[in-house]
Amino acid sequence: MNSPTSEFNALLLNGPSDPVEDNQANRVDIELVGNDDVGLFAFYTQFNDNGGASATDGTVFYRVRVSGNSG
Amino acid sequence: MGLDITSDGTLDYFINFGGNPNQEIAIVRAGATGNNSPDSLSIGSTLYSTTANASNSLFTDVGQIDTGLNDDLSTFPDVDRYDLDGGGKKTDLDHLLTFSLNFNELVTVIRADATGPSATLPSEYALFDDTFLIQMLVVTSQNTNNVNSDVGGVDDDDPTSVTALFTDPVNGGGLSNPVDPAGIEAVPEPATYALGLGLACLAFVGFRRRSA
User: Fold this and answer.
1) B144 in contact with A at a CB cutoff of 8 Å?
2) Is the pTM of this model over 0.95?
3) Is A9–B169 a contact, with Cβ atoms under 8 angstroms apart?
């Protein structure tokens, strides 16, 4: 859960990672932020397949970067 | 997270994190609206949910997880890697929300929706597993009745982006390329490369013949 983000895979969203200060997001904890120039993105995933014996088990992880911690 | 299982540009499910007063992680069906642009998002029925707790979620500032990000500022020295929006609407440092989901719960939901006379997914998804590729989107909201706060990869301040399709890379965007559960895009197999190279050679020969 607290593994470094370098161990996650960034999802490129066919647009800029995320422009900051979107008008629609009126709280910092729902304001997605990312900066393609410095390689820090708004959305990452990772998957632990529990060893690969089964193709239907495992744990999928999602990581999202937001502007702050409160409204 | 929005999930486009069938890669048709329309979201099929959401994986939600949130809730008030108790937070949960849930798989929900996409609503009856288009779900193919920021202004057409809606949430449908809940298909699975579990309580969010310390074992399946973490919300903390970036510095608690990633150290040394500002050690090398030789490029873009004005960008604080712990505060990408330079304070933004408040002076908070950026935070990371991480949460997890048992993959089998997603498998169960998708396989059920691809089975039987009332199936909503094509029958091949009755065999859904971690070899299938899906497209994903991230969106935030203050409540599930109006899912429109911030769509990742979309400049929400541009009015034209609100109605642009997630698959429109010029005016819209937001939907990832097809990826496996780890978020890795498929690499074409060698046979595909060979076929592509062969077609390129044929095209070149054809061009030369027409030019002669």
Assistant:
1) no
2) no
3) no
Q: Give residue-wise pLDDT tens across range B118-163.
A: 999 999 999 999 999 999 999 988 777 667 668 887 776 677 778 8
SS3 B114: coil
Calpha distance A18→A65 (Å, rounded): 10
Buried b (16+ CB within 10 A) or exposed e, B74-108: eeeeebbbebbbeebbeebbbbbbbbbbbbebbbb
Report DSSP state, residue B205.
H
Q: Distance of CA B27 to CAs A5, B30, B72, B120, Å?
A: 24, 10, 40, 16
Residue B203 pLDDT > 80: no
Q: Give yes or no for A51 touching B (CB within 8 A).
A: no
Count CB-CB contacts under 10 A for residue B55: 8
Q: Write out the two tokens for B139.
A: 């969106």
Measured from the Cβ of residue B183, the count of other Cβ atoms closer than 10 Å reads: 22
Q: Please give the ipTM for the structure prediction.
A: 0.92
Residues 6+ apart with CB under 8 A from B168: none
Tokens of A38: 């410095």
- Tokens standing for residue A65: 């970067």
Q: Where are the alpha helices (DSSP H) in chain B?
A: 103-113, 190-211
- Give the C-alpha distances (Å, rounded to integers) separating B154 from B1, B65, B78, B145: 14, 26, 23, 20
Q: Is B39 on the interface with A (CB under 8 A)?
A: no
- List CB contacts (< 8 A) between A27 and chain B: 89, 142, 149
The answer to whether A21 faces chain B, any CB pair under 8 Å, is yes
Residues of A within 8 A of B144 (CB-CB) are none
